[in-house]
Design goal:
alpha+beta, Chloramphenicol Acetyltransferase, six-stranded mixed beta sheet, 22% strand, globular, lipid metabolism, O-acyltransferase_WSD1_N, O-acyltransferase_WSD1-like, glycerol metabolism, diacylglycerol O-acyltransferase activity
Length: 445
Amino acid sequence: MTSDPLAPLDLAFWNIESAEHPMHLGALGVFEAGSPTAGAHAADLLAARAPGVPGLRMRIRDTWQPPALRTPFSFGGATREPAPGFDPLDHVRLHAPTTDFHARAGRLMERPLERGRPPWEAHVLPGADGDRFAVLFKFHHALADGLRALTLAAGVLDPMDLPAPRSRPEQPARKLLPDVRRLPERVRDALSDAGRALDIGAAAALSTLDVRSSAALTAASSGTRRTAGVAVDLDDVHRVRKTVGGTVNDVLIAVVAGALRSWLDERGDGSEGVAPRALIPVAKRRPRTAHPQGNRLSGYLTRLPVGDPDPLSRLDAVRTAMDRNKDAGPGRGAGAVALLADHVPALGHRLGGPLVGQAARLWFDILVTSVPLPSLGLRLGGHPLTEVYPLAPLARGHSLAVAVSTYRGQVHYGLVADGKAVPDLDRFALALSREVETLLTACGP
């Protein structure tokens, strides 16, 4: 393994982190257990397999003049490189039995990852009844996005029989001097990128106008975290989709909007006229870039029709907004601000990281992200994975983040909240389940 510079967006995630707002994402997987010792056996397996996954041995090192980069624009960057003396026991931890996986996961999600070693952890949580155990994976967002985190986690689970990946065509060797025949093409690309950046910046500025959010979605930095999880039947989601139209994702976003409405009304904050801006990330992987392991994200910025009392009308509004976003594409609009990271030199990320982190509240009000999972059954030590709740990082100034995964006929909502701002996270989780029932009822028999 060799070192490579962090991609611009990875560097941004690395630099906006603070003690109160750690930038790691997580996944809480629940496994069936045949005995009380299954959790301990799983921890031993994770520690034994981790050294065999190259990405898990990579640390991130801040550097002011990386040897591989000799341009002024690399000044102040960071590199991903093999960690000397890697010890998996620094990363895999076995905890005491618990009766509440989410309560324990919330406290563990509060703690930032240690930056001097590979930024990931696996916490094994045996169930007090001996029938189940859970594993909380934590990955720094500079190390992996949702798709990359899934790949790393799969490397320590039981092997799956998957088709061999198709080989990529070899890239031609880079010439020492640029090909002057491609100069017009490069100029056009540069002008196009500049125009796109101006378009994204203008759209982001306009999105801050006429905002009607809710104080319940705003939180000062407390450094505390709560997590919760909700599982709903995928067949129910498909029934709504087939009745009303749109996509599964449209229905899942509409469920969040309806749950926010119920939750705000129940806690006395009120939902009338509320239309918070939801950031919905979109993966834009480019396997042939210079940073094949780096984050490559864009996103859609969508107003959630929380103030609309009609569940089907809310779903129609979400569907219309998402269709409009897809027509425009993920490379433009206010949701694509993450793409601007490519236009900022490394030193700009280093110096401006704290300011960017504080600006998240001006850009959007709540994160609603989807993490794809394989449909094949996953196992650890022969124990089947039955539930998996993705957990998104909580941006500065936000009180709630929602992540969604579909696995084995179930949709799992993973919720992360500021512990002091949202002491009633379980009520919001219940509102998600109720909103699915509300949509089913509205669709009729």
